[in-house]
Design goal:
The chain is mainly beta. The protein is 1% helix and 62% strand. The chain folds into three domains: 122 residues, no CATH class; 114 residues, no CATH class; 80 residues, no CATH class. A ten-stranded parallel β-barrel has the order 13-14-16-18-20-22-21-19-17-15. The longest helix has 5 residues. It is elongated, with a radius of gyration of 28 Å. The N terminus is likely disordered.
Length: 364
C-alpha cells in the first residue's frame, strides 16, 4: 500500500502578501502496519512515540515572502517516510535574505514494534518503541526513553543526549559540546560514549563493556557493572566511579583527579598526567597507577596480589590488609611502614616509586 501527502503553497500567493510570520498545522492518520520510520527534517524537531492511534502531526512556520516548507509523508511496504525541506530561496518571486522556516513533526505509532532512522536539525525524542534506532541531529538534543532493540545510535554536533530506561544489544553515542546522561540501561554488548567536551553521567548500567572518550568533560559512573572492561577516558575532566564492578577498570583523566569508591575489579589501571588518584574501598587483584606529580591514595578492600604505583613527586599513601609483602620502593622522600612486614619471598607485591614524594604503607 502506498499513499502520499504533499504540502506546498504556490509562490504567486506570496507575492502580494506583506512580510510576516505564517504557520500551519496538519494531521494525517498512519496505519498500524508501520514497522519502520524514516525521517529527514532540514529544520525542526522530531518526536516518535507509541500510542493507541497512529498519526503524523506536522507544525510548519515560515516568514513571508519566503515559500512555505515542503513536507511529504509517505507509507510504502510498512515504512513511513517523512521529509521536510525549507523551499529554496530562489523559488521565491521576492528576494529573501535568509530562510527562517521550521517544521516540527510528531509521529505516533499504533504499534510499539518499530525501528527508527531520523536525521533532523533540531531536537529528537523517541519513546516507548521496540526496534533499532539510528538518530542524528545537527544542533538539537536527543532524548530516548523506554525503548528496546538490537542497536541504539545517537549523534549530535551541538546538543545534549539523555537516554533512560532502555534495553539494547549495543549503544553508541557521540556529541559535540553537549552532555551525555545515561540512566537505567541494560546493554547486552558494548557501550561507546564520546563527547568533544561535555560532561557524562552514567547511573545504573549493565553491559558487556563500556568505554567513554571525552575531551575535557567530567565523567561520573555510579552503579555501572560490566562483564569485561569499564574504560573511562576524560582527557582532562574529573573522573568519579562509585559502587561499580568490572573485570578491568581503566581510568585516564589527564591533569584532573580520578576518584573511585566502593568498587570491584580484577585489575585496576589508573593514569593521569598530573591529577591525583584516590582509590578507596576498592577490591581488586592487581593495581597499576601512574600520576606524574599527582598524589596517590590507595586503600584496598582485600589483599592484592600486586600493587605498582609510580609518581614523579607526588606522595603515595597505601593501606592494605596486615601481613607480609614483597616491598620495593624508590624515593628521595620519607618512607613509613606500619602494620606490614617486608618479605621478599611473600607472594604479594608492593612496588612504589615516588621521585621526591613521601611513601606511607599501612597495614589495617
Amino acid at each position: 500500500m502506498r499513499w502520499t501527502m504533499a504540502c506546498a503553497v504556490a509562490g504567486a500567493l506570496l507575492v502580494a502578501a506583506p512580510a510576516g510570520a505564517e504557520d500551519s498545522r496538519e494531521s494525517t492518520a498512519v496505519p498500524d502496519s508501520v514497522r519502520k520510520v524514516v525521517v529527514d527534517i532540514a529544520s525542526g524537531s522530531v518526536t516518535v512515540r507509541a500510542g493507541r492511534v497512529g498519526s503524523v502531526e506536522v507544525a510548519k512556520s515560515w516568514s513571508r515572502p519566503e515559500p512555505e516548507p515542503k513536507v511529504v509523508v509517505e507509507v510504502q511496504d510498512g515504512v513511513l517516510h517523512v521529509t521536510a525541506r525549507c523551499a529554496e530561496l530562489t523559488d521565491s518571486p521576492v528576494e529573501v535574505a535568509i530562510n527562517t522556516c521550521t517544521t516540527d513533526v510528531v509521529i505516533t505509532l499504533g504499534s510499539a514494534q518499530a525501528q527508527t532512522q531520523i536525521d533532523a536539525f533540531g531536537d529528537i525524542v523517541v519513546q516507548g518503541l521496540r526496534g533499532s534506532h539510528d538518530l542524528a541531529s545537527s544542533i538539537g538534543d536527543i532524548t530516548v526513553a523506554e525503548t528496546e532493540g538490537a542497536s541504539l545510535e545517537a549523534t549530535t554536533r551541538g546538543g545534549n543526549v539523555a537516554i533512560r530506561d532502555v534495553r539494547s544489544q549495543t549503544l553508541a553515542v557521540q556529541t559535540g559540546s553537549g552532555t551525555v546522561s545515561l540512566q537505567r540501561a541494560a546493554i547486552e554488548g558494548f557501550v561507546v560514549l564520546g563527547s568533544d567536551g561535555g560532561d557524562m553521567a552514567l547511573t545504573d548500567i549493565t553491559a558487556n563493556s563500556l568505554a567513554t572518550a571525552s575531551r575535557s568533560g567530567d565523567v561520573s559512573a555510579a552503579s555501572v557493572r560490566t562483564e569485561t572492561e569499564l574504560s573511562l577516558d576524560s582527557n582532562g575532566g574529573a573522573l568519579s566511579v562509585t559502587r561499580s564492578s568490572a573485570r578491568g577498570l581503566i581510568l585516564d583523566s589527564g591533569a584532573a583527579p580520578a576518584v573511585v569508591r566502593d568498587s570491584r575489579a580484577r585489575s585496576v589501571v589508573a593514569t593521569t598526567s598530573g591529577g591525583a588518584v584516590d582509590l578507596r574501598r576498592v577490591a581488586a587483584t592487581t593495581y597499576t597507577v601512574a600520576t606524574g606529580p599527582g598524589k596517590v591514595i590507595l586503600t584496598t578492600a582485600s589483599a592484592p596480589s600486586s600493587v605498582i604505583v609510580e609518581t614523579n613527586g607526588g606522595d603515595v599513601v597505601t593501606a592494605v590488609p596486615r601481613g607480609s609483602y614483597a616491598l620495593l620502593w624508590d624515593t628521595n622522600g620519607d618512607v613509613r611502614l606500619d602494620g606490614v612486614t617486608p618479605d621478599r619471598a611473600a607472594p604479594r607485591r608492593l612496588d612504589i616509586s615516588s621521585g621526591s614524594g613521601d611513601i606511607i604503607v599501612l597495614g589495617r
